[in-house]
Amino acid sequence: MHPVEIKKGIYNVGVVDWNIRDFHGYSTYKGTTYNAYLALDEKKALFDTVKKPFWSQLLHNIRKLVDPRSIDYLIVNHVEMDHSGSIPEVIEAIQPEKIFCSAMGKKALDAHFGSDRWPLEVVKSGQQISLGSRTVTFLETRMLHWPDSMFSYIPEEKLLISSDAFGQHWATSETFDDEVALPELLRHAAKYYANILLPYSPLIQKLLGTVSELGLEIDTIAPDHGIIWRSRPQAILEAYDIWSRQEARRKALIIYDTMWQSTEKMAHAVASGLAEEGVSFKMMSLKHNHRSDVMTEVLDSRALIFGSPTLNNGMLPTMADMLCYLKGLKPANKIAAAFGSYGWSGEAVKLITQQLEEMKMDLLEPGVRVQYVPDHDALAQCVELGRKVGRAVKETT
Ligand code: FEO
């Protein structure tokens, strides 16, 4: 990737990772990018770095613009290794006069790299530094999504360098939102939100309020992953407002796996009940859908209905994986129900139900359990479960 000028004298010098397919459990079928920004002014500042295997590409991009040794400041908005992995090599190459980070960023840099020898300067929210004709204002965004996270705002350019927030895991040759299709861009942004930022939704609501109270003028949002929002920054701000309020649509999601198709037959019967109530639904078999794609659909679903047969006194491993992942991402405002077939012991529905209770979902009981193969009456119970969920969805959306 070549450096791309995003504002006069400010460049994206980051890299594209076309081949990554797993990002700590999140399926990145379309790769990702690690964006890093270089502002050329009386003082030259580099905002973040890239994942370690890409450090030479980052330096190559910088060299196309300036001698790395002429860079004065390194600004570390986030210490997760996809942005900080190259820091030792970059510091060696540029020998910065100062490295700016948050207090928690200093702690994280010390823990990751033993940074005693580096010229770290801790900054707080609202603190400004001058680059010459431009200033950088720091805005700490603790737990969005690490304790160290912060934004850098350049008011003269109306530019928000937003670290992980507003990003997408999407490798492209394009840089800006007006160069790609907005619906596809928002789909990638929704998947990213559902799989990374969802647990921090209350903090995002607060942050959006703070940005509004501060009256920050923003015409470009430059995240550390994916496409830069220069034409429609409002589109992603509005989407984050909706997602962080965890507003659901009139939609239910049937998440299931099956051994010998009994639970699958039950899933189809539950779907019939939802259809009879006129509620939109999706069926997601865990054999055919990655957990992170299921999460994208969870984001705007009002009801989640889980189906698993019993295996060895438990649920199928795919369902256990899904529930573990879901629990960590803390979805709120969900109606839930469970169903499943069994041979002789039949614990799966009870175990799923326990987990849904722990996640504080609004549980519709009882779930439906069927021994071996569902007959007409058993399928009628599943249809009724679907109707019951459908009615609850309609009453609450
Ligand atoms: Fe893209 Fe939290 O790292």
UniProtKB/TrEMBL annotation:
<dbReference type="GO" id="GO:0046872">
    <property type="term" value="F:metal ion binding"/>
</dbReference>
<protein>
    <submittedName>
        <fullName>Flavorubredoxin</fullName>
    </submittedName>
</protein>
<dbReference type="InterPro" id="IPR001279">
    <property type="entry name" value="Metallo-B-lactamas"/>
</dbReference>
<dbReference type="InterPro" id="IPR008254">
    <property type="entry name" value="Flavodoxin/NO_synth"/>
</dbReference>
<dbReference type="InterPro" id="IPR029039">
    <property type="entry name" value="Flavoprotein-like_sf"/>
</dbReference>
<dbReference type="GO" id="GO:0010181">
    <property type="term" value="F:FMN binding"/>
</dbReference>
<dbReference type="InterPro" id="IPR016440">
    <property type="entry name" value="Rubredoxin-O_OxRdtase"/>
</dbReference>
<dbReference type="InterPro" id="IPR045761">
    <property type="entry name" value="ODP_dom"/>
</dbReference>
<dbReference type="GO" id="GO:0016491">
    <property type="term" value="F:oxidoreductase activity"/>
</dbReference>
<dbReference type="InterPro" id="IPR036866">
    <property type="entry name" value="RibonucZ/Hydroxyglut_hydro"/>
</dbReference>
<dbReference type="GO" id="GO:0009055">
    <property type="term" value="F:electron transfer activity"/>
</dbReference>
<comment type="similarity">
    <text>In the N-terminal section; belongs to the zinc metallo-hydrolase group 3 family.</text>
</comment>
<dbReference type="Pfam" id="PF00258">
    <property type="entry name" value="Flavodoxin_1"/>
</dbReference>
<dbReference type="Pfam" id="PF19583">
    <property type="entry name" value="ODP"/>
</dbReference>
<feature type="domain" description="Flavodoxin-like">
    <location>
        <begin position="252"/>
        <end position="390"/>
    </location>
</feature>
